[in-house]
Amino acid sequence: MDYRAFKKIYGASNNDISREVYKNNQNTIQIKKEETAVNNLEKIFDAVFHISYKKGFQAMSMRDLSQRTGMSLGSLYAYFKGKKDLLEIIQTQGWMIIKKDLEQVLKAYDPPGERLKAIIKAHVFLSELFRPWFYFTFMEARNIEAAKSMEDHNQKILTQILKAGETQGVFKSGDHDLTASMIKAMQQEWYLKRWKYKKLNISVDQFADHLVRLMEAFCLSQESTKVGKGE
Amino acid sequence: MDYRAFKKIYGASNNDISREVYKNNQNTIQIKKEETAVNNLEKIFDAVFHISYKKGFQAMSMRDLSQRTGMSLGSLYAYFKGKKDLLEIIQTQGWMIIKKDLEQVLKAYDPPGERLKAIIKAHVFLSELFRPWFYFTFMEARNIEAAKSMEDHNQKILTQILKAGETQGVFKSGDHDLTASMIKAMQQEWYLKRWKYKKLNISVDQFADHLVRLMEAFCLSQESTKVGKGE
DNA sequence: GTCTATAGAGCGATAGAC
DNA sequence: GTCTATCGCTCTATAGAC
């Protein structure tokens, strides 16, 4: 599976996400007309990501946000209760995106070799699709307990795949927790340093394939140097 | 070389760094007695790292810093011209630490196989020694051009080692830029997510060794599966 | 005429600077 | 302690759709 194929299956637009946010927060959002609300939420998130990327969420003032969205301060406060609330909405939504789609991928692949490959690629492709959400969540949630347990959760999925593979003789034995950590670090690299890969002219498919080959070189036991034809 | 050995050779204390900062900024620092200045600078840096870790540098107020250092606001302004100036001092010093020590390591090892191993480990050990400096620089300088060119510089060192190794038949051919990026990502993992490794009870030596083995599995050409006895 | 969404002056609190 | 700028946020008047 390459990025194009992945996008067709799991791809959601920014508009879809904003609509989901609207539906999940109808009690606090004071706007009645769905289309108006969804369009403005999209503008707000875009602006938050843009400003936060440049100077961080804490340093972003509500007036910055007002200027970039073209909305007034009063309007903005019709969409969220306060700056803190806005942060929480974005983080919650970010985690929901990741969790939902990764679970779907897990269900679709079974043998450890294929599953590892699929989950590694899916995470990279997801972070490409929703890069601003991933970047924002990483940078602005680093110390929140919820973020740590999210990272733990994702890592355990990888660890379990590696263990299952060892049991079946497909993967070498080793410190699977440590290996899973390394995988996570490299996955994060893609959305944390996009500027670098733009400069080097490396595509998301090249990156994901390289990562998969790297892990296969380390994990696959000698006998099974060519696993299924996959894809 | 393990962490203990590395520490003996390259280890500098926080006091040493503060003294270096004092000497590099004697024109702006208004304190004349060196010992007083150095001790207070150490206190200031400690406090900045602690507060910034919890809520980010932007969100740290000068009053926060005053409270945690036990120094008055007026005293603090005798050590730096303003909050912006303080940020720059820390970043500049952080980069000097990394650059100086990595260059020393480069000089000490020559064959690509040994050199790659040494530079990977040295970076991890350095980030363990000066973790607050590394973490702060990563988080608070992400968008500064200087930080990007620093990352580029470190990556090129790795790329060149990989290329030299390929020429000598020690390493496989491949996209060395991409491989170097992956190494950098995993090195950063160590200081960005220390809480994780504390929880998993993984030492810096275990981490560094695992990283080296992972890269050797991917990079070493078949014929040379056991390089020198190193260390 | 009614109701929704918006505008933007203005509030108290607090920031950095000295 | 003081000064000024700016912060997050509130509030009321009003514009515009139906």
CATH architecture of the largest domain in chain A: Orthogonal Bundle
Q: Structural class from helices and strands of chain A?
A: mainly alpha
Q: CA-to-CA gap between the ends of chain A?
A: 5 Å
Query: What is the percentage of strand-forming residues of chain A?
Result: under 5%
Give the number of DSSP strands of chain A.
0
Helix content of chain A: over 70%
| CATH superfamily membership of the largest domain in chain A | Tetracycline Repressor, domain 2
Report the sheet with the most strands of chain A, covering strand number, pairing sense and barrel closure. none
Structural write-up:
With 231 residues, chain A is mainly α. The first copy, chain A, is 73% helix and 0% strand. Chain A folds into 2 domains: 12-88; 91-224, Tetracycline Repressor, domain 2. Chain A is built from 12 helices and no strands. In chain A, helix 6 (83-108) crosses helix 8 (131-140). The first copy, chain A, starts with a helix and ends in a 12-residue tail after the last helix. Chains A and B meet through helix 3, helix 9, helix 10, helix 11 and helix 12 of A and helix 3, helix 9, helix 10, helix 11 and helix 12 of B. The first copy, chain A, binds a DNA duplex (18 and 18 nucleotides) through residues 30-33, 36, 40, 61-63, 66, 71-75, 77-78, 82-83.
In short:
The structure is a homodimer of 231-residue chains. The longest helix of chain A has 26 residues, at 83-108. Chain A is built from 12 helices and no strands.
